[in-house]
Amino acid sequence: MGLNRRDFLKAAAGGGLALASNLSPAPVLARATVTRLPDALGILYDATLCIGCKACMAACKKFNNLPPDLCTPNSLWDDPVDLSAKTVNIVKLYKNGTGLAKDQEINGYSFVRRFCMHCVDPSCVSACPVSALTKDPKTGVVHYNKDNCIGCRYCQVACPYLIPKFQWDQAFPQIVKCQLCDHRIAQGSYSACCEFCPTGASIFGNVQDLRKEARRRLSLKPGTFAEYPLQRVDSHHKVSRQVTPYLNHVYGETEGGGAQVLMLANVPFNKLGLPQLPPTSQASHAETLYHTLYKGMIVPYVVLGGLFYIIYKNTTGHELP
Amino acid sequence: MKEKKHRHLPDHFGMVSRRDFLKFCAVAAAGMGLPLGSGLKIAEAVANLKKPPVIWLSGQECTGCSETLLRSTHPTVEKLILDLISLDYHETLSTPSGELAEAARKKSIAENKGKFILVVDGSIPTKDGGIYCQVGGKPVLQILRETAPKAMAVISIGSCASWGGIPSASPNPTGAVSTQEALGDKFKVINIPGCPPNPYNFLSTVLYVLTFKKLPDLDDKARPKFAYRRLIHEGCERRAHFDAGRFVLEFGDEGHRRGWCLFKMGCKGPETFNNCPEQLFGDVGPRSWPVGTGCPCFGCSEKGVGFTKAIPEQANLKYFTPAGVPFQGTEGVKPGGGALCLTPSTAYPPISVPEGHGATTAAVAVAAGLAGAAAGAGAVAAMKIGKKESPEGAETKKE
Questions:
Q1: Which candidate from A5, A79, A273 shows the least CB-CB separation from B344?
Q2: Contact flag A77-B342 (C-beta cutoff 8 Å)
Q3: What's the pTM value of the predicted model, to 2 decimals?
Q4: Where are the domains of chain B?
Q5: Per the CB < 8 Å rule, is A9 touching B393?
Q6: Domain A41-280, CATH among 3.30.70.20, 3.40.1190.20, 3.40.50.2300, 3.10.450.50
Q7: Has residue B224 got a pLDDT over 50?
Q8: Distance between CA atoms of B352 and A83, rounded to whole angstroms?
Q9: Quick check: B349 and A93 CB within 8 A?
Q10: What is the model's pLDDT at position B382?
């Protein structure tokens, strides 16, 4: 036997290191971050307009046939504490100190809606091994197909926003997440959360228009009066309102390669539970890594060939012919 | 211009002025959710009918239903009902009594066959041939069965006549049943449950039958939908406190004084269908209904709730279907449960929810140990493939 255990382990460790050192100094991206689709649909959520009425939560449950999430002791209300397989949209509260001033980081409070961001380059779609999660080529909505899903829950691990949820209490569980009311979009309607938002805090529309609208709001002078569209970004129904200060940042414009859901607030987004993400998508990094590993199937052939060689040598006592 | 339309109406209806009469008719139409013009239609129908006869039979009752009707003080309704509707027989209100009263009933029934409205209050005893309630030596059960076939419509007023009420409460010594049960399925009885019911629910039903010559829309329990379509909880003025989780925990406590929700005191509003919060009682203004005065609803109008459940018992939220689940309501299957679905409360979850601890050092150590053991076992197994084979190979060489 030409190879003892010690040598084998040494060689394996060495090979691993060599491979790692090859990849570690920021390799050229095999795949760049995906760019925005021209007709992508999305939602602009403006926390400074949100009054926390939860009409969006009630409408979401109603139009997506979701059961109540009973978290209070005597089950009087639909009271989810976080997103779950029964709740794909939730209004949360940030509170600091006295919690008196709206949209203030110190001694203030702010609402925040959490639901699927419909990333431009979604990690969940990239991680899904069976294409159960797909990104619509036109609208950019991240769809879930239960017939493809094998229940591996890679999407849950991959998502930086912790959006996909698993039905732990079901015999045949599925992944549950916001799909932007695609069944309503198919009927010519739009997301229920936006239709039922009374203040225009959530508006639906083409992402390009939503970005323009977000930029317009950031350019408004606090204290002046401005018009805010209701329900849809292209709506003729508008409300006039005194502008309150905004944090000069549109969350979702570049985060993680961008998202089709954009958010505005006056409290730092990391305080609202939204992660700080680099402008390149996680999916592009991950796909670069494993596309490199499997490129031309060279690495798999080398590793498997080596193993085959060792075993062949050990079992026959001969070198390869 | 409006005046012209009903110029043919007389100036006075008995002791009621035309103005008051029209007002009453408009209010009745509004109460039933009918369009604006219906008030006039009702007025014309009532004016032209010239005293439609009403026979009022009483079973096992407390006269509360008659009292509630007398307490209705919209433009002098008691005068209206006495002057416009010919109340030919009513045991409490009739001037004659005894044989004279019985004779009046028989005469009216014979004269107005198929034209009169039969109103029943009180439950009907059926045990031992119905001997526990008799009028003029005749069991009410028998009188009812004789009278009902000749009536234009049969209306049960009050919970006793609608579903049995107090007399039917366990152990039900008289075998009390509702009018519908006493008459059988041949008759369609309109039920106006309540203890007592709102007089306007009754008056509106009578006027509807007289005006449109048909029964109003009824739900599965034969109650007029215009009055019994919604749960008390749906229209309750304290609903906001329910949603916000502000409950009275003891009578006279801070919450009770501030008018908070009475659910935890046993209010049966979430399982009782009635229009008490909208219609109110006694015409004395806002809050003139039980919950408005700080008393939990005890579900008087709902079978299986009133006189059946203990007063402090908390209401069952069975009508609160999950959002999105089709709800079998009084108006057929509603998608999504409508107003009856469980809604979010006004409390908010925090940004990050505590989810227990992350992996402890010990757990990480154990997991790492297991992973190491697995890696070692794999390596050893790979080595063994060769080692196992080599002695055999040596043997073959020897041979």
A1: A79
A2: yes
A3: 0.66
A4: 2-227, 232-316
A5: no
A6: 3.30.70.20
A7: yes
A8: 11
A9: yes
A10: 67
Which residues lie closer than 8 Å to B116 by C-beta, 6 or more apart? B52, B53, B54, B55, B88, B108, B109, B150, B151, B152
- B-chain CB neighbours of A61 within 8 Å are 322-324, 341
Confidence of residue A191 (pLDDT cuts 50, 70, 90): very high
Residue A87: count of CB within 10 angstroms of its CB: 27
Q: Which residues contact A32 (CB under 8 A, 6 or more apart)?
A: A284
Q: With a CB-CB cutoff of 8 Å, which residues 237-276 of chain B face chain A?
A: 242-243, 245, 263
Pick B349's closest partner by Cβ from A62, A76, A90: A90
**Cβ–Cβ below 8 Å for B324 and A64:** yes
Q: What is the mean pLDDT of residues B189-217?
A: 87
pLDDT in tens, B112-140: 888 888 999 999 999 898 899 988 888 99
pLDDT digit string, tens, across residues B247-264: 999 999 999 999 999 999
Q: Given the structure tokens 């009635």, which residue do they identify?
A: B274
Cβ atoms B220, B228 nearer than 8 A: no
Residue B282 identity (one-letter amino acid): G
Domain B232-316 CATH assignment equals 4.10.480.10: yes
**Is the separation of the CB atoms in B37 and B106 below 8 Å?**
no
CATH code for the structural domain at B2-227: 3.40.50.700
pLDDT tens for A82-140 read 999 999 999 999 999 888 899 999 999 999 999 999 999 999 999 999 999 999 999 99
Q: How confident is the model at residue B75 (pLDDT cuts 50, 70, 90)?
A: very low
Structure tokens at A135: 């990104």
Quote the CA–CA distance of A40 and A120 in Å, as a whole number: 9
